[in-house]
């Protein structure tokens, strides 16, 4: 009978409280409690997020154990998100993980949230095939936009990243300009399916190397909308689908141009995606199209493993457990935590 290395993972970097149980690379449970309160504010309110984590964390962990059909005594280690993220939110998850591991006298494993997004590609049911080293990963979320070269599980090199705003923020800010509810990304994606992506054009940032910039892009959308609404107060309502399609197409063009450049510069044609914005349908399709157009081999994880979730933290936890990479109980949470 094989030994079961059950690991509990906790994710609390932003506004979702997550807990998952993993054995090897097989996810046995993946529970997420989302916080709806932020919708009325048009963005995440850090203080409210940390309070909600305090309310959610015990029930979420309890549910994860029950769904995996194990008890806390079966656990071999506790993994948690150390950063990056909102400090108050990180402290809730980190404090719980430290206390729980100490009470059970089992190892504690700290996890970099962005590394976890990338390594989610190695979860058993994440995709049909796993990437081999080295590969490139386009990591896109509300707070990060990066192209990362992955040499092995614990050796990652950032080749390019945003110098100002992230792609996810560009989606949400564009949505705010269009009077769409928060978070706007999924709504823009949905409306884009029936809109004309070439109806409107916006400023394309000129950034050297493999870095990104979305600040000027957002400003160009704002000025364009202000000008059009001045001439026609109903401009947004009359053109909402085409506006969403054009904005999304522009953002995805920026991302794909840099990915193509990265493959040319590195000679690596294995491309994975990670992060919440990688759930976007056009990003997924354009990446898949690259297999035919450029000879890429792409790895696109299932939706459940793209947004913030504890399963990806668990995957890193099990890899570190296998390599006996444990964490001292004195480790401090960090809002900025580079790969």
Automatic annotation (TrEMBL):
Gene3D superfamilies found in the cross-reference section: 3.30.420.40
Keywords, in A-Z order: Acyltransferase, Cytoplasm, Iron, Metal-binding, Transferase, tRNA processing
Keyword Chaperone: no
GO MF: iron ion binding; tRNA N(6)-L-threonylcarbamoyladenine synthase activity
Cofactor: binding comment: Binds 1 Fe(2+) ion per subunit.
One annotated GO biological process: tRNA threonylcarbamoyladenosine modification
Subcellular location as annotated: Cytoplasm
Enzyme Commission number(s): 2.3.1.234
Residues at which Fe cation binds: 113, 117, 308
InterPro entries associated with the record: ATPase_NBD, Gcp-like_dom, KAE1/TsaD, Peptidase_M22_CS, TsaD
PROSITE patterns: GLYCOPROTEASE (PS01016)
Cellular component aspect of the GO annotation: cytoplasm
Pfam family, one: TsaD
Summary of the function given for this chain in its UniProt record: Required for the formation of a threonylcarbamoyl group on adenosine at position 37 (t(6)A37) in tRNAs that read codons beginning with adenine. Is involved in the transfer of the threonylcarbamoyl moiety of threonylcarbamoyl-AMP (TC-AMP) to the N6 group of A37, together with TsaE and TsaB. TsaD likely plays a direct catalytic role in this reaction.
UniProt family annotation: Belongs to the KAE1 / TsaD family.
NCBIfam families: gcp_kae1, T6A_TsaD_YgjD
Name of this chain's protein: tRNA N6-adenosine threonylcarbamoyltransferase
Highest classification ranks of the organism: Bacteria, Pseudomonadati, Bacteroidota, Flavobacteriia, Flavobacteriales
Name of the gene encoding the protein in the UniProt record: tsaD
């Amino acid at each position: 009978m094989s030994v079961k290395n059950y690991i509990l993972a906790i994710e609390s970097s932003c506004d979702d409280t997550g807990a998952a149980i993993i054995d090897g690379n097989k996810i046995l449970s993946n529970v997420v409690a989302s916080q709806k309160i932020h919708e009325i504010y048009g963005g995440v309110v850090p203080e409210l997020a940390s309070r909600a984590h305090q309310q959610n964390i015990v029930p979420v962990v309890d549910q994860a154990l029950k769904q995996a059909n194990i008890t806390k005594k079966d656990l071999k280690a506790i993994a948690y998100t150390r950063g990056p993220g909102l400090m108050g939110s990180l402290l809730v998850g980190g404090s719980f993980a430290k206390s729980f591991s100490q009470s059970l006298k089992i190892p504690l494993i700290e996890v970099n949230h962005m590394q976890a997004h990338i390594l989610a590609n190695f979860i058993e049911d994440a995709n049909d095939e796993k990437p081999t080293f080295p590969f490139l990963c386009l990591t896109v979320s509300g707070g990060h936009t990066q192209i990362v070269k992955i040499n092995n599980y614990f050796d990652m090199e950032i080749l390019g990243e945003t110098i100002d705003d992230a792609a996810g923020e560009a989606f949400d800010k564009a949505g705010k300009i269009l009077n769409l509810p928060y978070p706007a990304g999924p709504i823009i994606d949905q409306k884009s399916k029936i809109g004309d992506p070439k109806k409107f054009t916006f400023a394309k940032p000129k950034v050297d190397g493999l870095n990104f910039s979305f600040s000027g892009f957002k400003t160009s959308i704002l000025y364009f909308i202000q000008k059009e609404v001045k001439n026609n107060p109903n401009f947004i309502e009359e053109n909402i689908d085409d506006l969403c399609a054009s904005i999304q197409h522009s953002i995805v063009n920026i991302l794909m141009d840099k990915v193509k450049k990265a493959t040319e510069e590195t000679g690596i044609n294995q491309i994975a995606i990670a992060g919440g914005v990688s759930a976007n349908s056009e990003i997924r399709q354009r990446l898949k199209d690259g297999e035919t157009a450029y000879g890429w081999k792409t790895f696109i994880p299932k939706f459940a493993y793209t947004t913030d979730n504890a399963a990806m933290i668990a995957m890193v936890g099990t890899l570190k457990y296998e390599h006996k990479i444990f964490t001292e109980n004195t480790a401090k949470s960090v809002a900025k935590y580079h790969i």
